């Protein structure tokens, strides 16, 4: 159901991600990619099927999301970890963090995320981050609801801003 709910957004992100990277960095040859907050691996699978890289890595904090990702494509390496605490042996050419995953981190975790990206990003590598701005989370998210209906499912998402932790919360 997760992929059904997010397919349109993920396809748009995929197109925008590679359109912007290939326009801005056309001479770079990417061999490896990390998707931070990869969920079910949808974005990595799109990259894999287009043969964009040699090595694919996904990081997510959810066992159930990773189980689905591993079921879908066994040639992609997946790791259970928070996105601010991931570890690899070697640097990677491209690190992506999409779907506003960073919005679920508190300021200390965000700092740790950027330190890790700096540590594991190749010298001429690219970090692609999509996010809602603090203004969006604080002033637009609060008390918003999104209803989606598929052929065999319905989902309701509630968004709020927690002022104490300075986090956007989606339930």
Walk me through what this model shows:
With 171 residues, the protein is of the alpha/beta class. It has five helices and eight strands; from the N terminus they run αβαβαββαβαβββ. It has helices at residues 2-24, 42-49, 63-72, 107-120, 134-141, and strands at residues 32-36, 55-60, 77-80, 92-97, 121-129, 144-149, 154-162, 167-170. A hairpin with a 4-residue loop joins β6 and β7 (154-162). α1 (2-24) packs across α2 (42-49). The model has no long low-confidence stretch (mean pLDDT 80).
How many helices? The count is 5
Q: Going across the major beta sheet, what is the strand order?
A: 3-2-1-4-5
User: Structural class of the secondary structure composition?
Assistant: alpha/beta
Taken in chain order, the helices and strands follow as HEHEHEEHEHEEE
Strand content: 25-35%
Low-confidence stretches: none
Q: N-to-C terminal Cα separation, in Å?
A: 15 Å
Percent helix range:
25-40%
Please summarize the sheet with the most strands.
Answer: 5 strands, parallel
Number of distinct beta strands: 8
The backbone outline, from C-alpha atoms, is globular
Radius of gyration: 16 Å
Q: Report the mean per-residue pLDDT as an integer.
A: 80
């Amino acid at each position: 159901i997760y992929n059904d709910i997010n397919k349109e957004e993920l396809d748009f992100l995929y197109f925008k991600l590679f359109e912007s990277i290939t326009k801005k960095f056309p001479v770079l040859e990417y061999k490896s990619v990390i998707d931070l907050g990869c969920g079910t691996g949808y974005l990595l699978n799109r990259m894999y099927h287009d043969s964009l890289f040699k090595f694919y890595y996904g990081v997510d904090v959810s066992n159930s999301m990773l189980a689905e990702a591993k079921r879908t494509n066994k040639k992609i390496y997946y790791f259970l970890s928070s996105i601010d605490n991931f570890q690899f042996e070697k640097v990677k050419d491209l690190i992506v963090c999409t779907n506003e995953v960073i919005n679920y981190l508190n300021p200390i975790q965000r700092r740790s995320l950027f330190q890790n990206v700096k540590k594991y990003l190749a010298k001429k590598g690219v970090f692609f981050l999509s996010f809602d701005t603090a203004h969006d989370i604080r002033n637009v998210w609060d008390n918003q609801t999104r209803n989606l209906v598929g052929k065999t499912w319905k989902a309701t998402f509630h968004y709020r801003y927690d002022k104490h932790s300075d986090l956007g919360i989606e339930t």
